[in-house]
Design brief:
This protein has one domain (about 5-295). The relative contact order is 0.21. The protein is about 70% helix and about 0% strand. The protein has helices spanning about 5-20, 25-30, 35-55, 65-90, 95-100, 105-120, 125-140, 155-180, 185-205, 210, 220-245, 250-255, 260-270, 275-295.
Length: about 325
C-alpha cells in the first residue's frame, strides 16, 4: 500500500471519528431527559472503561514507570476531566452560540501545544488548510451571532467553556507524546482510570439518584447511553489515537472543524432541521481542508528521530 493511500485511509478514519463526535450533542441531550449531566458523562465512560479492560486482556501492555503514571494523570485530569466536565457546566451559564464560537479555538490551541510538546511546525499547506477550515466552520457552524454574548453576565460560563476547549487541545497534543511509549488502548484506558477516580466520587456526591434510578430509565435513554459508551468514548477515541500515532497532532486536530458540519447534517437527517446550500458549501470546504493537511502535508518535526522535544511535566 502506497504512503498516499495510507494517508487517505487515515483521512477517512478521522472523518468517521468526527461523525461520531458530532452525534454526542444529540445523545447527551437525549439521556439528560432522565438524568443529570454528571451521570450522563460518568456512566458511559465507565462502561467504555470496562470494554477497554476486556480488549486489553488479550494484549500485553508495556510496563508503566512513575513518569508514565503522571502522564496518564495529566491526560485524565487536565485533558479528559476538564474537557468533559467543564463543557457540561459551561453551557448552563452561557449561550450555546458562545460554546460553538469558542470551540473554533481548539485546533489552533492544539497546534500551539503541539509546537511546545512535540516540536511540530506550521507549513504553508497547514496555514491554507486552517484558513479554509475556519471559513468553512463559520459558514456552517450554526452560530447565532445575535445570541453571542461575552459580557460579564456570562463570564463564568465562557471561562468554563474555554477551559474545556483547552482541555481537549491538551489531550490531543500530549497524548501524541505518550503514544510514543504506549499503545492507544493503554493510553485511553489509563487516562480513563484517572478521569473516573474524580468523576465517580463527584457523581455519587452530587447526583446519587443517577445510580439509584438505573432500573427506571427508558429504552430510548439506554440506547443513548449505549451509543455514547461504544461510539463516543470507546470506538472513536481508539480510532483517533491510532491515527495520531501516524499523523501530527496539528493535522489530526484540524479535522475537528468537521464536527459543526456533521452536527448540522445529523440535525437535518434526524431532526429535519434546515440545511442550506451555504451550509453544504461550508462542509465541502471543511472536507477539502482536512484532506489537504492530511494527505498532501508532510512537514518533519524539529526532532528527526520522532522523539518529543519537551520533557514530561514535573
Amino acid at each position: 500500500m502506497t504512503d498516499r493511500r495510507k494517508k487517505v485511509i487515515d483521512w477517512l478514519l478521522l472523518l468517521s471519528c468526527n461523525l461520531m463526535w458530532a452525534s454526542q450533542f444529540v445523545m447527551v441531550k437525549l439521556v439528560q431527559t432522565q438524568m443529570g449531566p454528571l451521570f450522563a458523562v460518568t456512566f458511559p465512560i465507565a462502561i467504555s472503561t470496562v470494554m477497554l479492560l476486556v480488549v486489553l486482556r488479550r494484549t500485553r501492555p508495556t510496563a508503566i514507570t512513575r513518569s508514565d503514571l503522571w502522564d496518564f494523570i495529566y491526560l485524565g485530569i487536565a485533558g479528559q476531566l476538564v474537557a468533559q466536565l467543564f463543557i457540561t457546566w459551561g453551557v448552563r451559564f452561557a449561550p450555546a452560540s458562545n460554546a460553538a464560537l469558542l470551540s473554533l479555538v481548539m485546533p489552533v490551541s492544539t497546534a500551539v501545544m503541539a509546537h511546545f510538546f512535540l516540536g511540530e511546525r506550521m507549513s504553508p499547506i497547514r496555514w491554507i488548510s486552517f484558513g479554509l477550515a475556519f471559513l468553512a466552520v463559520i459558514i456552517c457552524s450554526g452560530v447565532d451571532w445575535n445570541d453571542v454574548s461575552f459580557g460579564f453576565r456570562y463570564a463564568a460560563g465562557n471561562a468554563l467553556i474555554f477551559l474545556s476547549v483547552l482541555g481537549s487541545a491538551f489531550y490531543n497534543a500530549y497524548s501524541k507524546k505518550v503514544l510514543l511509549r504506549h499503545s492507544p488502548l493503554q493510553v485511553l484506558l489509563y487516562s480513563y482510570f484517572a478521569l473516573l477516580a474524580v468523576l465517580i466520587p463527584l457523581t455519587i456526591r452530587l447526583e446519587p439518584e443517577g445510580f439509584t434510578r438505573l432500573g427506571h430509565y427508558s429504552s430510548t435513554v439506554w440506547f443513548g447511553l449505549a451509543i455514547l459508551a461504544f461510539f463516543q468514548y470507546f470506538l472513536s477515541m481508539v480510532i483517533f489515537l491510532n491515527v495520531l500515532t501516524r499523523l501530527d497532532a496539528t493535522q489530526a486536530a484540524l479535522s475537528n472543524y468537521l464536527i459543526p458540519f456533521f452536527g448540522v447534517l445529523i440535525a437535518f437527517l434526524v431532526l429535519h432541521e434546515r440545511l442550506t446550500g451555504l451550509m453544504l458549501l461550508g462542509g465541502v470546504l471543511a472536507l477539502a481542508s482536512t484532506l489537504l493537511i492530511t494527505v498532501w502535508d508532510d512537514v518533519p518535526r524539529d526532532d528527526e528521530a520522532n522523539v518529543p522535544v519537551a520533557q514530561s511535566l514535573p
